[in-house]
Amino acid sequence: MLERAAKARTQMSGLEAAAVCMLLVITLVAAAAPYLVPADPVLKIGEPYQPPSLSYLFGTDEIGRDMLARMIYGVRLTWLPSLVIIAVGVSVGTVVGVAGAVAGGVIDLLLARLTDLFIVIPSTMIALAAVAALGPGIWHTVTAMSVFWWPWYARIVRSEVKAVSGRPHAEAARLSGVRGPRLVIRYLLPAALPTVLVTATLDVANVILVLSLFSFLGLGAPAPAPELGAMTARSLASLTTHWWIPILPAVAIFVLVVTANLAGDGLRSLMKAV
To answer: How far is 144 from 114, CA to CA, in rounded Å?
Structure first.
């Protein structure tokens, strides 16, 4: 029974596999949004406040813009920047973590203290202030968040590289004359990649929530850009009369977050089995 339970924990469930497939579909749809949208997301195409119907699957908003087109672009403006922030965080964190673990001594101490400093400061609040100072804009938000999103990855990579550097295969590589980047890339870094990959997948949901918060506060792309958080914020007054306008973007954020979490759990189970 214990063996069966252990095996079950190292297998991706059907729901988690479906979440991974759904994230792939979301990524493709977000990338191809300009070719998939049924109408221009910022132009009026019909009468305002048209409820969901066969003519307008998600209805129209207070101006008469197609909600389906705005939702697709909204996912694009939330999902793709989230991937950019995660990619920058993983890249910077990996470089800092590897540099500290391999160099050791004073360099390792300085990089470790720098990492701790970025972890303890209220990074979201500082990023919020930075975006407010720079002005609304999706790339201002991405830049401000990327600056503060690498420390946890640096700590993970440093820990994993230090742990593997004393193992027999790493010692054997050093004795055979392997040094520098080749030692790091071939023998040390691969040990950290599974943990970093799982962490990054689970972290996407946090990035989506923070991006949506910034957008909700009006610090994302300027209007009339169809960001999910901003679409919800601007139409809250219509909640009791035209529910689909604020509710559908909020549901899209919820689906993105839950799907990303499920996919991360599935990837973690898969990594355990490898």
So the answer is: 17
Listed as ranges, residues in the chain with pLDDT below 50 are 1-8
Query: How many other C-beta atoms are found inside a 10 Å radius of the C-beta of residue 36?
Result: 15
pLDDT of residue 106: 92
Are 160 and 192 in contact by the 8 Å Cβ rule? The answer is yes
Q: Smallest Cα–Cα separation from 235: which of 221, 249, 256, 222?
A: 249
Q: What is the DSSP letter of 228?
A: H
DSSP letters, 129-191, are HHHHHH-S-HHHHHHHHHHTSSHHHHHHHHHHHHHHHTSHHHHHHHHTT--HHHHIIIIIHHH
Residue located via tokens 């040390």: 188
Contacts of range 40-47, beta carbons closer than 8 Å, 24 or more positions apart? 40/69, 41/65, 41/66, 41/69, 41/70, 41/72, 41/73, 41/226, 42/224, 42/225, 42/226
Cis peptide leading into residue 194 (ω within 30°): no
pLDDT at 8: 47
Q: What does the alpha-carbon distance between residue 177 and residue 198 come to, in Å, rounded to a whole number? A: 32
DSSP classification of residue 66: B
Enter the DSSP assignment of 240: T
Structural domains of the chain in order of their starting residue, each with its CATH number: 25-273 (1.10.3720.10)
pTM over 0.70: yes
pLDDT value at residue 115: 92
* pLDDT tens column, 177-236: 777 777 787 878 887 888 888 888 889 989 999 999 888 888 887 777 888 998 998 888
